[in-house]
Amino acid sequence: MKKTLIVLVSLLVVTAILLISCGSSSTPETSSLAPAASFSTPELSIGRGEKIYTQYCLACHQADGSGVPQLNPPLKNTAYVLGDESKLISIVMNGFTEGVEINGETYTNPMPAVGANFKDGEIADVLTYVRNSFGNKASAISADHVKALRK
Fold first, then answer.
1. I want to staple 65 with a disulfide (CB 3.0 to 4.6 A). Which of 54, 81, 134, 149 is the partner?
2. How far apart are CA 111 and CA 9, in angstroms?
3. Nearest-CA neighbor of 76 among 121, 142, 11, 9?
4. Where are the chain's structural domains?
5. What b/e sequence results for 39-56 when a residue is b if at least 16 CB atoms lie within 10 Å of its CB, and e otherwise?
6. For 139-144, which contacts have Cβ atoms below 8 Å and span 24 or more sequence positions?
7. Which SS3 state, helix, strand or coil, does residue 72 take?
8. What is the pTM (predicted TM-score) of this model?
């Protein structure tokens, strides 16, 4: 359980670093990304999330979600992505600075907190995309769940 939490937090830290340092210089508020709709389906959320991932996450986590060895953890078929939604949301919103071991490999690149940079729906969309891409198959994350954890 502790190992899963560490992995999840690392994922969020890496995602945040990517969003802040590896991604585009525009912020989500000024980007051309479509805002999350008040009514959504998992398919729509995945489509919006893919755009966010491509702009802010891809540089660190790669196009195929494989990450970067010893730096940025993979996003495919890992417990921290497919497991507890609240932990995954928390990593993205609050960052992660500890090294994490996944499948015998340690990842050490910290992920900064990016929760303040993204709306609840945008975090839900990108995490729904990640949880349903790269061979992953998991439930969608709702903006309401993100909002509840932001408090």
1. 134
2. 8
3. 11
4. 2-24+36-150
5. ebeeebbbebbbbbbbbb
6. 139/85, 140/42, 140/45, 140/46, 141/85, 141/88, 141/89, 143/36, 143/119, 144/120
7. strand
8. 0.75
pLDDT tens for the chain, 151 residues long, are 555 444 344 444 444 444 444 443 344 443 445 454 456 799 999 999 999 999 999 999 999 999 999 999 999 999 989 999 999 999 999 999 988 888 889 999 999 899 999 999 999 999 999 999 999 999 999 999 999 999 7
Tell me which fold the domain 2-24+36-150 belongs to. Cytochrome Bc1 Complex; Chain D, domain 2 (1.10.760)
Determine whether 15 is exposed, middle or buried from the number of CB atoms within 10 Å of its CB (0-12, 13-18, 19+): buried
Going along 1-151, which residue ranges are E strands?
A: 100-102, 105-107
Q: What is the C-alpha radius of gyration for the chain, rounded to an integer number of angstroms?
A: 14
Three-class secondary structure of residue 41 per DSSP: coil
Query: In terms of Cα–Cα distance, which of 137, 136, 142 is closest to 64?
Result: 136
**8-state DSSP, 139:** P
